[in-house]
Specification:
The protein has 512 residues and is an all-alpha fold. Helix content is 73%, strand content 0%. The protein contains 20 helices and no strands. The longest helix is centred in the middle third of the chain and has 35 residues.
């Protein structure tokens, strides 16, 4: 078997891992989650969740990839045969689904980078987004025709991804992240500096940081902290296992995990400052409280921020270009990491060349993604995103830690492996976090999500976008649960398939 690809440097791996973790959610989700859950007080459960779940799982996944030297399916197979392999494929197919719609959001950000030059969205950014840009269908479930203005930049996004992924781990992914991540930090720093100098910025920052300590007594706030950390760090859907499989044998696993975790959180804090400074400015201009302009997700990026940019004094177009360029850069680095999971899985399982795996895997994702470039694309994207994150990523994380800690009983093996190559030594705290705290919190989250989604199926109110608003039960059933079942069914089918000869015969990894 050919020698596995490797990162050129430790810094290259860390930038790639940070590039995967730092994505659209850091910019448009974290500030809102923090604000809704106690402002400055939220940083207490956030930091606790980072240290008891985020970084411990990162260490575990870095160790799995480094020890077993394979994609997620191959690493789990080497861990415990086909009884474990399906977990890896489950993560791979969740990544596949995410790649299909994540790419479309990057395409929107590309368009808005250009629109910012002359504020093309005009005085009504909401109507511009849903009408001129997306040409949104009237009813959820209606596919409609393709929207050329979305389809063409989507093809460009996939073109960039193909170029990076065809070039390989060292000359493609590592090189791209060495360019994109420093550029992203510089660009977003400029955005933040400009935002905090706006009239009313301090009002926004006060709303963001002002601690509501009473929230700490609410268990849902702590669950929100764990939930955000979990989704923010790219854990539990095969990415970090795949990336760490390219590490050299002498790699400080634990230190790498701490650096990646804190770098991601640092960028989230920066994003919160920039976003709420801008929201404070908007609230001041409209003479309304900050809570009346706070938003998240698609609404924040493509409706609220264009409205903010409209009101900014002097060179507001440049601010818009930098903001949307930061979304593009953060999105591309994450998309590349997501795609690498199924490229590595296909290459390992079927013993095919990297180029063939890229062509088949990324090509299939690109074709499916065109569904989200139709007039009904936003509706499909909204439901797919909600379900695959809540019942894909979170469910994998819960199953993964329970099986590894309590069924396969591998925590001791992984602790020994990580400690041999790491300066920071793992101990009882790490096992308690993964064996007790994380399963309990994730289990509570999953129970709450299932109860909410089954008990409130008929209670969704009409609206233009955002997790079920105006969606029929049929659309939720087929548009949402079908993507969850797709990932599970495909995981089982790929697990049943036999490994190609010689794929499992290598001395490049440690036997337990």
């Amino acid at each position: 078997m050919a020698q596995r690809s490797q990162w050129g440097t430790r810094a290259g791996f860390i930038m790639a891992a940070v590039g995967s973790a730092v994505g659209l959610g850091n910019i448009w989700r974290f500030p809102y989650v923090a604000y809704e859950n106690g402002g400055g007080a939220f940083f207490i459960p956030y930091l606790f969740a980072l240290l008891t779940a985020g970084i411990p799982i990162l260490i575990m996944e870095f160790t799995i990839g480094h020890k077993y030297r394979g994609s997620a399916p191959l690493s789990f197979f080497r861990m415990n045969g086909k009884k474990a392999e399906w977990i890896g494929w489950w993560g791979v197919f969740v990544s596949f689904v995410i790649a299909t719609y994540y790419s479309v959001i990057i395409a929107w950000a590309m368009k808005y980078t250009i629109y910012s030059l002359n504020l093309t969205w005009g005085a009504d950014p909401e109507s511009f987004l849903f009408g001129s840009v997306l040409n949104l269908a009237d009813n959820p479930g209606d596919v409609g025709g393709y929207v050329p203005g979305v389809l063409l930049p989507l093809l460009l996004v996939w073109g960039v991804a193909f170029i990076i992924l065809f070039a390989g781990v060292k000359k493609g992914i590592e090189l791209a992240n060495r360019i994109f991540i420093p550029t992203l930090i510089v660009v977003f720093l400029i955005v933040v500096i400009r935002a905090v100098t706006l009239d009313g910025a301090m009002i926004g920052l006060d709303a963001f940081f002002k601690p509501d300590l009473s929230k700490l007594a609410n268990p849902t706030v702590w669950v929100a902290a764990y939930g955000h950390i979990f989704f923010s760090l790219s854990i539990a859907f095969a990415i970090m296992i795949t990336y760490s499989s390219y590490l050299p044998k002498k790699s400080d696993i634990t230190n790498n995990a701490f650096i990646t975790g804190f770098a991601n959180s640092g960028f989230e804090l920066l994003a919160g400052i920039g976003v709420f400074a801008a929201l404070g400015f908007m609230a001041t201009q409209a003479n309304v409280p900050v809570d009346e302009v706070v938003s998240a997700g698609v609404g924040l990026a493509f409706v609220v921020f264009p409205a903010i940019i409209n009101e900014m004094p002097g060179m507001n177009g440049i601010f818009g270009v930098l903001f949307f360029l930061s979304l593009v850069l953060a999105g591309i680095t994450s998309l590349v990491s997501i795609c690498e999971t199924f490229i590595a899985g296909i290459s390992d399982k079927f013993n095919v060349s990297r180029n063939k795996a890229v062509t088949v895997g990324v090509g299939a994702a690109a074709i499916v993604s065109t569904l989200f470039a139709t007039r009904g694309g936003l509706y499909f994207l909204d439901v797919a995103d909600y379900f695959i994150n809540q019942f894909g990523v979170a469910a994998i994380g819960l199953v993964e830690v329970i099986l590894i800690a309590w069924v396969f009983r591998k925590l001791g093996v992984f602790e020994s492996h990580a400690n041999k190559v790491s300066d920071i030594q793992l101990g009882a705290w790490w096992k308690i976090c993964l064996g007790v705290i994380t399963p309990l919190v994730l289990g509570y989250m999953m129970f709450g999500l299932l109860r909410t989604n089954f008990m409130k199926l008929h209670e969704y109110e009409s609206g233009k976008f955002g997790n079920y608003e105006g969606y029929s039960d049929t659309f939720i059933l087929f548009g949402g649960w079908s993507v969850v079942l797709f990932a599970i069914v495909m995981a089982v089918l790929f697990t049943i398939m036999k490994w190609k000869p010689n794929q499992l015969e290598t001395s490049d990894y440690e036997e337990d």
